[in-house]
Amino acid sequence: MGGFLSPAEATALWLSLQISAVAVAAALPFAFAMALLLARPRFFGAGIVDAIVHLPLVLPPVAVGYLLLVVFGGRGLIGSWLWDTFGIRFVFSWTGAALASALITFPLQVRAIRLALESTDPGLTAAARTLGAGLWDRLFNITLPLALPGIVSGAITAFAASLGEFGAIITFVSNIPGETQTLPLAIYAALQSPGGEMAAARLCTLSITLALIFVTAGNLAAKRIWR
Amino acid sequence: MSLEVALKHRLGSFALDITFTTKGQVTALFGPSGSGKSSVVAAIAGLWRPREGRIAVAGRVLTDTPKLFVPPEQRRLAVVFQDARLFPHMTVDDNLKFGWRRAAQKAGTAEIAHVIDLLGLGALLARRTRDLSGGEKSRVALGRALLASPDMLLLDEPLAALDATRRGEILPYLERLARDTKLPMLYVSHQVDEVARLADEIVVIQNGRVAAQGPVFELLTDVEQIAGVPPLGAVFDAKVAEHQPDGLWRLTFDGGVLFVPALPQAQGARVRVRLRAEDLMLALEEPRHISANNVLACTIRTVKPVGDHVDVQLLCGGTRLVSRITGASSARLGLAPGQAVYAVVKAVTVAREAG
């Protein structure tokens, strides 16, 4: 790698992987809970919740970044409280980039898990009940393992999509090398500087390779592990 | 052991109003598809909540609307579903032990080995459930329910999804289960032959109501009237009395003796005997020089025309029998209630060892 990428580019790659991994892992429990709520919904307003979950997928990422600034920024409602109470800060930090990525790719995870949940036989949880399994028991021993292929494929797809996130990150946490400069932001920075075309092309090739690897992995996982 | 069910529910134009109490070891819930049988099982298992109802198993009240509803996971009632419902992400062994691991009173190693042996599951334990045949799936589902050590076993048409060959493969296991264990069972079926082989008590359900209830021996000879299915014939228990030198076995029952070819059962064992209505010929005088081994002296209870044939209900000692003959034969013989006749038995089916 050292010969192909400059140290700054290697940092951007490493940062991208790190931010995406954290984003996907942090969002996963919430995505699972949301998918449980939305699979075969039986409550009023499920359609509205579903629409809100899908918002980050269709909104301009810049708008998402702006909203994040408003809410989690230094003077934002939650942002100022987090800083005052815990000393946690998202702006200009890689954790902020992870937060933006998590939000943008959240619908992808919810969709995949929800599809997996909806394709499992509800009779199986009923059978588990008659065999003495309570709510959490069923959740961890029946529902979760049956949804596992969907969880894995959703996580991989979200990871791949997260590697490419640009608008929300640059708006929310800016383009700081070594802190928030992920691969797409590095490509952007390279194009802004004179003579950076070669660097941009290298990073672009790298992005394509990564995307292909993870999308293929996601598709393979979607072909259910069991059944 | 007793099962008390009383429930009322309305679903669109379909009204369910079922009340029965049974003390039988194997009670059959019998009726055509769509009569409400499965709803009754779901209500007993706690998977469905009727608008009004009271359900008690062995005196333990499980549903008493509106105040009491024990959740299914605390009912200690295992269900064998028509579609087996094995957990696809587990091996056969893990499926079998799913309920066992969660049971308050766990079956011991000997008992587990016994169930595995009884159902012939030994060779399947390490297998994934998707690799099993339909019959094997049914057996695993049955084993899984048994090992949960339930207070009562609910079997919701466990054989309905199987073809005739597979059904014939599983029925002996169910018979052994009914014989070897004292576990109370509710067996839901629309197949009269399954009911005849397994049940002690029958509750007939039609259009969401209990149409009839009684011991299998009494109800099955006249099942057409109550359930709209052709009579299967007589069902009764007999005792293996003697193995004769001529190769036949002598069975005694309340009404006389029957001679049948070799049986696997030992002398003194009790067996369930079925005489199909089509296999009983009637004669006014005692026939001699006849190839049939069995001729029973009976009295006619009723003569009932059904379509172009006639069902003649008979009493042989204390046992009810039924013969299906043509209307022409009935008219020629001039059959009437109270008349003494001889029933020539063409074939005897010995089903299971009775309890």
Chain-wise SSE layout:
The complex is a heterodimer of chains A (227) and B (355).
Chain A: H1 7-38, H2 46-58, H3 61-72, H4 77-86, H5 94-118, H6 122-130, H7 135-163, H8 167-173, H9 183-192, H10 197-222
Chain B: E1 3-11, E2 14-22, E3 26-30, H1 37-45, E4 52-57, E5 60-64, E6 68-69, E7 77-80, H2 92-102, H3 109-118, H4 134-147, E8 152-156, H5 164-180, E9 185-189, H6 192-198, E10 201-206, E11 209-215, H7 216-219, H8 223-227, E12 234-243, E13 249-253, E14 256-260, E15 270-275, E16 280-283, E17 294-306, E18 309-316, E19 319-326, H9 327-333, E20 340-345, E21 349-353
Helix pairs in contact in B: 2-4, 4-5
Structural commentary:
The complex is a heterodimer of chains A (227) and B (355). Chain A has a single domain (14-222), classed as MetI-like (MetI-like fold, Orthogonal Bundle), CATH 1.10.3720.10. Chain A is 76% helix and 0% strand. Chain A has helices spanning 7-38, 46-58, 61-72, 77-86, 94-118, 122-130, 135-163, 167-173, 183-192, 197-222. Chain A is globular. The N and C termini of chain A lie far apart (40 Å). The mean pLDDT of chain A is 89. In chain B, helix 2 packs parallel to helix 4 and helix 4 (134-147) packs parallel to helix 5 (164-180). The longest helix of chain B is centred in the middle third of the chain and has 17 residues, at 164-180. Chain B is α+β, with helices and mostly antiparallel strands and 355 residues long. Chain B has helices at 37-45, 92-102, 109-118, 134-147, 164-180, 192-198, 216-219, 223-227, 327-333; strands spanning 3-11, 14-22, 26-30, 52-57, 60-64, 68-69, 77-80, 152-156, 185-189, 201-206, 209-215, 234-243, 249-253, 256-260, 270-275, 280-283, 294-306, 309-316, 319-326, 340-345, 349-353. The mean pLDDT of chain B is 87.
